[in-house]
């Protein structure tokens, strides 16, 4: 998921009751809920390095205990800084503040870190939670990387208590401590309900695609990928021995839309340049991650370099805007006349 959703998830989790058990629970859980995405710093070494290490060890069960310790240490430093500056923690309207309990902060951070892995599993990019013991990618593919319904539920859980608190203060109502627990629990319950609906609709989208019989060949495998906002709109990718076919499915109406020309991608032959590209750094990383890779040798450039493109058919969103060659998470390897890699690009950015 995108960062703001992760941050808000940590804060809402804390408001569901954890913030009553230990001071700094909300701070720790909010930070921990987004901490695994610090691996984006690998992108400073180039786009291929970013692809290789994104959702790496920071998104694994093995890394969670160490990340929780780092988050707890960061909160401890903030606590010490506040003490040195003699800055008291905010009181809760005459109610006693929860005590500072570092072991609880540590375990609350573990819970928030696990929420990050769970949320990333729900989209179609995937995670490797058992790495390095099991390098397999797992993806639920039930929500888009940005899901508006989830976002609004989390936002409501964080803002509604404050708004209703303002209304209550105008009429002289007593402001209760730790407001928002009911809103937080309702938002989390709503998200689980949304996931359940999307899981059912995803299975239905694949079944409708099978019934449509778009390909007369034997189906090797199939996936369905979500669109944002609408739980009844899906993109399916069907693999057969000779080709891939993309379709758009509306599970509410049962409509399956696919062009026998524009939406069919025949598996290209393995040219010498394509084989060189597959053995490159980008090729190795991309094929390790991609679930439905399409590797095309599209010929020579004016500089005499052979261009080999890497695309994953799960990410053909917005092709009417970006164009067929503007697929997100696409890579390119340029092979020279000596059949060596000249340079590599990811999403148009050159790996230095």
Keyword list:
42% helix, alpha+beta, 10 strands, 352 residues, 10 helices, 5-stranded antiparallel beta sheet
Descriptive report:
By secondary structure, the chain is α+β, with helices and mostly antiparallel strands. Among the domains are: 3-140, no CATH class; 269-350, no CATH class. It is built from ten helices and ten strands. It has helices spanning 3-15, 25-34, 47-53, 64-84, 102-122, 148-170, 181-212, 272-278, 281-289, 319-322, and strands at residues 221-226, 233-239, 243-250, 255-257, 264-266, 293-300, 306-312, 331-335, 341-346, 349-350. The strands form two sheets. Strands 1, 2, 3, 4 and 5 form a five-stranded antiparallel sheet that branches. A five-stranded antiparallel sheet has the order 6-7-8-9-10, covered by helices on one side. A hairpin with a 6-residue loop joins strand 1 (221-226) and strand 2. The two termini are 28 Å apart.
């Amino acid at each position: 998921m995108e960062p703001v959703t992760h941050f808000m998830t940590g804060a809402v989790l804390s408001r569901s009751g954890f913030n009553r058990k230990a001071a700094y629970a909300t701070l720790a859980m909010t930070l921990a809920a987004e901490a695994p995405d610090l691996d984006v710093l690998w992108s400073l070494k180039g786009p291929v390095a970013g692809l290789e290490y994104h959702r790496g060890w920071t998104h694994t069960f093995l890394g969670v205990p160490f990340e929780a310790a780092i988050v707890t240490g960061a909160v401890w430093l903030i606590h010490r800084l506040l003490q040195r500056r003699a800055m008291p923690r905010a009181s809760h309207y005459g109610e006693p503040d929860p005590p500072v309990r570092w072991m609880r902060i540590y375990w609350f951070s573990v819970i928030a870190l696990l929420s990050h892995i769970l949320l990333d599993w729900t989209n179609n990019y995937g995670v490797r939670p058992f790495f390095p013991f099991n390098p397999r990618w797992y993806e639920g593919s039930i929500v888009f990387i940005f899901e508006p319904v989830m976002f609004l539920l989390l936002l409501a859980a964080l803002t509604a208590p404050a708004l209703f608190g303002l209304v209550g203060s105008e009429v002289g109502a007593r402001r209760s401590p730790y407001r928002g627990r009911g809103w937080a629990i309702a938002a989390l319950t709503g998200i689980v309900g949304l996931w359940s609906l999307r899981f059912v609709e995803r299975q239905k989208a694949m079944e409708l695609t099978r019934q449509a019989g778009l390909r007369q060949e034997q189906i090797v495998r199939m996936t369905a990928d979500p669109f944002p906002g609408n739980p009844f709109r899906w993109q399916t990718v069907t693999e057969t021995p000779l080709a891939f076919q993309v379709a758009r499915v509306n599970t509410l109406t049962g409509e399956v839309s696919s062009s026998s020309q524009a939406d069919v991608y025949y598996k290209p032959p393995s040219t010498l340049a394509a084989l060189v590209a597959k053995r490159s750094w980008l090729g190795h990383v991309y094929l390790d991650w991609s679930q439905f890779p399409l590797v095309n040798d599209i010929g020579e450039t004016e500089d005499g370099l052979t261009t080999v493109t890497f695309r994953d058919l799960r990410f053909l969103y917005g092709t009417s805007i970006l164009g067929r060659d503007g697929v997100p998470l696409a890579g390119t390897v340029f092979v020279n006349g000596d059949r060596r890699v000249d340079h590599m690009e990811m999403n148009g950015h050159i790996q230095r």
